Automatic annotation (TrEMBL):
E.C. designation(s): 5.2.1.8
Chloroplast found in the keyword field: yes
Catalysis performed (reactions): [protein]-peptidylproline (omega=180) = [protein]-peptidylproline (omega=0)
A cellular-component GO term for this protein: chloroplast thylakoid lumen
Cellular location(s): Plastid, Chloroplast thylakoid lumen
Name recorded for this polypeptide: peptidylprolyl isomerase
Family: Belongs to the FKBP-type PPIase family.
């Protein structure tokens, strides 16, 4: 409650010569108090301040609960745009390199620097939608030096940018579609006994979340 309500609300008893009380603009602040007319022995009316009406105040528990509700609502409102962006179908942009990309969530942090040790989560899928690998399932992001050839070329290009692809920013989420030459090419990956987890000449889809430097 503002201290003004107390400083301006104190009413001083005064005599009023007319039969009706007059309340000026300053006296209007005294409406927080109960007032009543009393007739004095001389026959004049006096406006007398009675007991103060204590305003209703919320308890500490109610105030904390209200603050928590506001914070929760704000968090939900902030999450909704990002969740809606991720749920929206992603329209891929084809770059001159053959790499197609789409930003589901644009990052807010710095971009990666070539040779920097970074962390990224990902889900890898074949063109038919079959998931062949996921760092989320392992509960641990991939750590590697970007641009140093430690991962397939499509990953370096998709995160660092170049050849018509903008660099990713930390906190961003991007879908990458890699042609075979930017993926595992003719050799495939995870091959054993004539069967490959990633068959040769496969087009690959990756949902990449660039967390930031490691």
């Amino acid at each position: 409650m503002s201290s003004t309500a107390f400083s301006l609300g104190t009413y001083i008893t005064r005599n009023i010569s007319s039969n009706r009380p007059v309340i000026n603009s300053f006296d209007a602040t005294a409406l927080r108090f109960k007032s009543q007319l009393q007739k004095s022995s001389s026959g004049e009316y006096q406006l007398v301040q009675a007991a103060y009406e204590k305003p209703t105040l919320c308890t500490r528990r109610e105030a904390i609960g209200f603050g928590f509700s506001i914070a929760l609502l704000d968090a939900i409102c902030q999450q909704q745009p990002a969740e809606a962006a991720e749920a929206t179908p992603c329209e891929l942009t084809l770059s001159p390199s053959g790499l197609a990309f789409c930003d589901k969530v644009v990052g807010y942090g710095p971009q990666a620097v070539k040779g920097q040790l970074i962390k990224a989560h990902y889900v890898g899928k074949l063109e038919n939608g079959k998931v062949f690998d996921s760092s989320y399932d392992r509960g641990k992001p991939l750590t590697f030096r970007v641009g140093a050839g430690e991962v397939i070329k499509g990953w370096d290009l998709g995160i660092l940018g170049g050849e018509g692809v903008p660099p990713m920013l930390a906190g961003g989420k991007r879908t990458l579609k890699l042609p075979p030459e930017l993926g595992y090419g003719m050799r495939g990956a995870g091959c054993r006994g004539g069967s490959c987890i990633i068959p040769p000449e496969s087009v690959l889809l990756f949902d990449v979340e660039f967390i930031g430097k490691a």
